[in-house]
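Technical appendix A lists one of the benchmark inputs used to test multi-chain prediction within the project. The record comprises two sequence entries:
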Amino acid sequence: MQTRDVLAWRASVAGSGVMGEPAARGRFGEYGGRYVPESLAEACREVDEAFRGAWADPGFRGALTRLLAVHVGRPTPLTPAWRLSGELGVQLYLKREDLTHTGSHKINNALGQALLATRMGRRRLIAETGAGMHGVATATAAALLGLEATVFMGERDMERQSLNVFRMRLLGAEVVPVTSGSRTLKDATSEAMRHWVGTTDDSHYCVGSVVGPDPYPWMVREFQRVIGEEARVQCAAELVTGVPDHVVACVGGGSNAAGTFAGFVDTPARFVGVEAAGGAGASGGRLGVLHGFRSLFLQDDEGQIIEADSIAAGLDYPGVGPEHAHLRDLGRARYVTVTDDEVLGATARLARTEGILPALESAHALAWVIRAAGSGELPAGSTVLLTLSGRGDKDVSTLKELL
Amino acid sequence: MTNSLSNAALDQGSVERQLRARRDGGRRLLMPYVTGGITPDWTAYLRAFAAAGADAIEVGLPFSDPTLDGATIQEATDAALARGATTRQILADLAELPDLGIPLVASTYYNLVLHDGPEAFCAALRRAGVAGLIVPDLPLHEADELTGVAAAAGIELALLASPTTPEPRLAEIGRRSRGFVYAVSIMGTTGERADLAASATELTRRIKLGTDRPVLLGFGISTPEQAREAGRHADGVVVGAAVMRRVLDGAGPDDLRAFLATLRRALDQE
């Protein structure tokens, strides 16, 4: 009996179906888990315990909902993309996470975790960031709640996203350049974990996507669920069919996709996650363990992790969240890739048809819709909900060079 | 778990038997670490370690993303991978090595164990003459999926314990660990440090309350003084970054033999 008590976490809770609570030991099918150094085992347990308590506490939920309303500007609108829809022959609706305060869906999670950190008595947030959006969101949430923030960012990404680096510092965060490996998101994540090992007593690791050790993939999806739940209600009011035929989102780690899918999991809507061709964990990865979780990762023949390479720094991650790997296995979602060129074309097209400049990450989802409408994979007249996860302001200098 | 005392001898593999025998003979244990494939003739370091009086040798199988390692082991890992080191080649090199008379313990991250599957991985270790295994990102609660496979292949999977590990869990680590218990001296990554952390003493004491398996203290032990201090509480020490910094700076096997001899003397004086 003692063995059970020591080892079991969540053992008494049955998995509550697709996109519910993960099964015992933080599993989504065969993926997930808590593959952390022993030094982080207790910290993960504490986060899990605190999140369970908070998520069941109407006071916490109410405080977060209010912050999301008065600080973030939720609910975000559902925008019919009339002109582009006309061109494509489908009915395209955009869930406008680009209109949140700080300009991407990352703030939904960062604010949730920051509020949790204050509840846990932590004084500092640690974060990794790729494009810088999660870093900016974390710095913002920290400033709002009076916490310190330390953000780890790959040196290469700091060059690509220098404006976001400046924004984070302006918000009072410390930005630490990561010079190891590919100097992008993967290495920033490793460095953030290393840093957390030494600071678990006063710092909360604010993971930015549905990745990492249990409970992060579940917790981050729950904090992003607001996207899908709002969109569900908005679609019911706006669409003749009530529910879209397809729900499409870009996938790096997969947090905006997970939050969106969660709102439609009990509907017939078909889920499509769109990855960067150079960072396609779900589409091209094989089973592995990295950064605390078991999932699909890009690897070479020797089992070394391959560096992802995409025009969108936020998708430069060689793995995918464990729940996405599970949804793929179940056939509940499918995962496709688009190329950098398709992404650039989609970015310009949305700007010119709808007056909306999407983040390069979000433009991946759009690029697939454009391709699929052209190929007939999306039949004429289909309704498509696309989560526009962020705005493209951060990418203007990249676009200026490439377009 | 009731059998842990009465059947202790039956549970013991060759790593634990050898380490226990030496410890019970009054010796403080020394387990130096080397990153496999760091140089073309890297196994010469192993001979030097053995000659310097090592009681076991930890061989790191380099992984692209060593999330529990500090700057020195990261640099060594990158250097080994850059010169084309692979698990396969490292194990082939070890297989050619004559018996050094002390156990070899592989250490790597779980992704490399999973790559060809735990069964194939453990069998490959065994064929190369490796008897122990350390997987720093496979904590107690995930270790089940490897312990049985490892034991069946004759590989002793040593578990790590940390200063924040709570009491009942620590006892379970003592029970389930094989070969020895790896005590992580400090809440941090691998790497040299100026002083032995106070947490090291307390952790070692707590582990020993629950098990009489050998307890090796690692992370940050880099000088003879620290080794001597560590030897007062633990059964022995693991020395990694202090070795690899010297290797990265160009030190050859003879230099490392001299360095480890200073640690050996410090441990023996205690």
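The longest helix of chain B spans residues 253-269. The first strand of chain B starts at residue 29 and ends at 35. Comparable benchmark entries are summarised in Table A2.
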